[in-house]
Design goal:
The complex is a heterodimer. Chain A contains 16 helices and 35 strands. Chain A is α+β, with helices and mostly antiparallel strands. Chain A is 32% helix and 27% strand. In chain A, strands 13, 14, 15, 20, 23, 24, 31, 34 and 35 form a nine-stranded mixed beta sheet that branches. Chain B is α+β, with helices and mostly antiparallel strands. In chain B, 28% of the residues lie in helices and 25% in strands. Chain B is globular, with a radius of gyration of 23 Å.
Amino acid sequence: MSYRIAIDIGGTFTDGVIENAATGEIRLAKRLTTQADPGEALADVVDDLLAAVRHVNGSGSPSGAVTEVVHGSTLVTNALIERKGASTALIATAGTADIIDIGREVRYDLYDLDIQMPKPLVAREHRFELAERIAANGAVIAAPGQAAIDAVVEEIRRSGAQSVAVAFLHSCVNPENEIRVGEALKVAMPDIAISLSSRIAREIREYERTTTATANAFVQPIVAKYLNELSARLRQADIDAPLRIMVSSGGSTSAGIAAEVPITTLESGPAGGVLSAANAGRAAGFDDVLAFDMGGTTAKICTVVAGAPSVVHTFEAARVRRFKKGSGLPLLIASIDLIEIGAGGGSIARISDLGLLTVGPDSAAADPGPACYGRGGKGATVTDADLMLGYLNADFFLGGRMRLDTSASEAALQRLGDRLSLTPLEVAKGIFNVVNEAMAAAARVHIAEKAQDPRRFTMVATGGAGPVHAVEIAHKLRIPRVLFPIAAGAGSCLGFLAAPFRVDRSWSKPQGLETVDWQVIATTLADLKREAEQEINSALTSPADVVWQISVEMRYVGQGANLTVSFPWRSISPAFAAELDAAFRKAYEANYGGVLPAGSLEVVTWRIVGATRQDIKRFVWPTGEAASAARPKAHRAIFCTQADSMSDVPIYDRYALGSGTRLRGPLILEESESTVVVPVEADVEVLGDLSVLIHLGGE
Amino acid sequence: MIDPISLEILWTRLVSLVDEAAATLVRTSFSTIVRESNDYAVVLLDRDAQLLAQSSQSIPSFICTLPETVRHFLRQFPRDTLKPGDIMITNDPWLGTGHLPDISIAMPVFRDGILVGFAGSVAHSPDIGGRLRSPGNRDLYEEGLRIPPMKLIAAGTVNETLIEMIQSNVRIPDQVLGDLWAQVSANRMLGQRLLEMLDETECDLVAVGKEMHARSEFAMRSAIQALPEGDYEYEARVDGFIEPVTIRCRITVKGDALAVDYAGSSPQLPRAINVVPIYTFAYTAYALKCVLAPTVPNNDGSFRPITTTAPLGSILNPKFPAAVSARAMTGHLLPTAVMGALAKVIPDRVRAAAGSPLWCVQLAGAHEGRRFASTLFLNGGQGAGAKGDGLSALSFPSNLANTPIEVIESQAPIRIVRRALRRGTGGAGKTRGGDGQVFELDLLADEPVAMSFMADRLRTAAPGMLGGGPGATGRVLLNGAPIDPRETLVAAPGSRLTLETPGGGGFGPTSA
């Protein structure tokens, strides 16, 4: 018997799941996150999980049977937001150390004259310049002299920096000057952490690459220390299994690599959530999924096509304004392409300057929370509206652990209603509709950017508020099906367990397709793959089937936006040019409806991705005996959107419904983590693994 | 009357349709300025050519130009003669956006044979023929191809004559036409999405438009009404051409209306820095929106309380065929003038002059027998305000990004030797102006390189506000010696060019 464990440390809760590798059976555990020492809650969750398994299987500690621990946390995200990282220095090409101040010179809000920009992670007095130069084609114009290197090393020593980023112009094409300086630093200061921009993000655009290297340097010492402590905690629990760390691209890596390039672990929690949704979709037979997660403060939306979440190669961290694109530090890391908007259960409704009802992006969060929490929140929130509309059960919120104050909601809604000449119920309907339209609008633009048709998707809804709003949003987007997976409370952890081991490498070398030197490409890609293979082999405990892929970012000469074409790994020869040409034109036509000027093509960035083969994980959640017949536990009036009125509908206990149960909406399914709201006529089906599928018709 | 909830929902929906079409336009565009700098707009108009919604990311110069352009189209092609499948086009500066590179197109949208609205778009074309963009141009005919209001597509049939004319008059026809077709498909997509939305909601677009306009107008009028009545004046100056360019601005606040008169500004010049009335309005309205009502949407309603005037023959209302291609060199001063005039009444909401207008250098030549051309933008410091220091090297009032050094060098025989802040060049004050930058490059081409510039405030500093000090002036040096950037010049191989952009003005007296 063997077990795998996943642990997700979030801002509020530390969640854990243990999986019986043979049967897929899972057990859950949850503790409050211990901010001062996150390892404490993690150790408690591990204990809880082991105890749960021991309880089922009888005597003997199962810790020896744990073969793998997969972990994700918000450590890097928080360190960047709170600016609590290591004292960091930067070595840049002579004349360019101010690049991180100058940035791209654009404003992220056209109408706000008082915007603030994110401050660079390296203070001016910790930036050093070195006379060296690589040309755009990779030729070494000037190698750094030994005396100059020694002088810079000495300055860094005097600065007291614990970590240093090295970022030279065109190091993405030829990293040799960076490598030379890196080696000199290592010899002179064996204890300092070193981040070479060509290792962290081998991509063109010096501001973004330098920022990525400084961000990596900024968090590296604290992540290395943290991972050491975690390993020690696991050993104390008698677990002698490799620790894997989730990365933002939707895979996992070894603790050793994560300690070296921690910036790639930035968005591990949300990535886990999307992987979980993708896996749940595949397990139910749907490969094209719109992952929709709605929590207390935000909603996250991501497209998954053919089982694979879309991945982008830029991410903005530590935004000055959370929902303003361009207000953060731009990082060149592979990350799952999800959009986040300020719409959650805690989002507050207001009357805008135009006298219209708007919702969010500001949130009452958990404290004081919505008015119905009774903790002093006065604003009417989405949760207050959901309660007023009958969707939430005041006596069964969080499975009855918290009582909601309906009269407080009504009073808050009344205050808004007085200004709009509307009843509290009308205001509640308005909030529900407005917030759903805002999420649908964001999803609509996101889907358009991906050139996808929403009618192909199945929405997979998670998060505390997601199942309450999903059916209405799907309806607005013309998405025909909505799936509610099991174990909503363990979302990201299931994604961690479903994640493949993954390694990403990139290399920017913009050039015309006709002028490519295929020998150089072949050699460089082979080198990158060898390096990536070493990384994977050093981390995998048993030989696994690794699938390799080459992706090429291309464009017409003169265009700025790239389109990516992907191929299974293959040997590179001049014949590849014709294949790239054909693949690009096909993708272009598919994306843009056949607007095909007779332009010539350019290749910009080469990428290699290696990932262990990703099988569908079929998790089994033992939830006790299901009732033989589906019988509602109650009836109550909810707002039915089609009928536009409050009507009595049946309320079911979700996990009392056995697989194969078929029901007809409108209805409500209650579970402790959330509430599935079906406010329209629709077929409701409980699948084999107890996930719930809603057919909205129109298929 | 539409209730405030349905209106919010319908309006959110309309904006998302426009943004969806804009996403397609940006991704398929060849124009660097469109995709890097958002120099485009996609709009949805009702059947009376009133603006319903505008793409969220568009830059200020397109505030409300497209509805005006569509009204011009309708004078040429009366409403009842329009057919499904028509697409109208123009780039006339006086009817469009103020210079030839911006091509505006509009498509009527029919539902069951009835006109329900217009989908419109404007985008900065990668080339429009004529002389390279230079402030030295003397009349419009030097500036390229002028397309009068025409049908690009008539009832589904492409106007091949026009296509051939465009093809034969621009330097990079594939890219220019590629962008034009990208605009066409964005418009068609918007039309299609609008019809789907109407099928679903059966809403009355004219009623939605009227209500949004009424509410926006009310919000803007309330903001104006909160200002004390009176006349407020300011005079902004830059180096200009033959002599300094002066913008005289007189703002009259009366009740809930606001009039801006530019009488007394410089006369129109035989140089390409003249600004047509619609662009004068756009940058004036932009500044007023920033300081008075930043959250109110751009539409016909919100701008109804605002008027701008300038006498015919003024640099802000030039007679045809004045040269206009570098209109930004003058237009970018308008926010400075407007905020200067309002500084005494709303000091906490305005900012001192920025190190604007935008700087630009164009380099063209050949290396190893291959031709190259580079257009590089750079910005000075932001003006200081009551709420804080100005930011350094920031685009204002436009929003144009710089080009990364690695991208510049991979496309042209140029080596950038320095991109750094000019520390201490922001004006002193209670809050400091933002610093300018120094951008220094070596020409590696084996042939001489032609250079043209937009570079102002070499003699006239960005002034401070309410006692703040001026920013430092800018400099343009060739091989270490100052040059006059107002005319095109040719540099020898191996030359070093140094551009030092101006600092922003300071705010308030230093000893506070």
